[in-house]
Specification:
With 147 residues, the chain is an all-alpha fold. Helices cover 67% and strands 0% of the residues.
């Protein structure tokens, strides 16, 4: 027998459903093939572990109660508030407005800081030096004077 056929007949061997000829072939293959022997030992050990555990019996009337519950009409449960479309749109609108206002406030703060930096830079540096008085009085010159 091939390895595939042997491995397919593991359950039949455990249950004793193999006839005498097939059982001898099975045992001979398991004795000769190390891989199938390893698989067979693992399979048999798993089944032995399962057989040691006690089966749990359902309580009296379990089947009737389950069938009765399946026949009962389903109760309609109101969806959670956050799943309602109106609530979702309201939340989305609120979030968009909050982000917009936050951006606007942040932008105004940034612009105010930028203007303050420019103001400080202009007043700290003496661009015009000693000629500031002359330049400041240029608007008082007559139209005849040219620079």
């Amino acid at each position: 027998m091939s390895c595939r056929k042997i491995q397919a007949s593991f359950d039949e061997r455990l249950d004793g459903r193999l006839d005498a000829v097939r059982q001898q072939e099975f045992d001979a293959h398991i004795a000769a093939c190390a891989e199938c022997r390893r698989e067979w030992q693992a399979h048999a050990a798993a089944w032995q572990t399962l057989l040691r555990h006690e089966a749990i019996e359902p309580s009296f009337g379990f089947v009737e109660r389950t069938l009765r519950r399946l026949d009962e009409p389903e109760t309609v449960v109101a969806p959670a508030r956050w799943r309602l479309p109106v609530f979702r749109w309201a939340m989305l609108t609120t979030v968009v407005i909050a982000i917009g206002l936050g951006g606007r406030v942040g932008w105004r703060h940034y612009q105010g800081n930028k203007q303050a930096q420019i103001y400080v830079a202009v007043h700290e540096v003496d661009f015009f030096g000693e000629d500031f008085e002359v330049i400041a009085s240029l608007d008082q010159l007559n139209g005849d004077n040219e620079l």
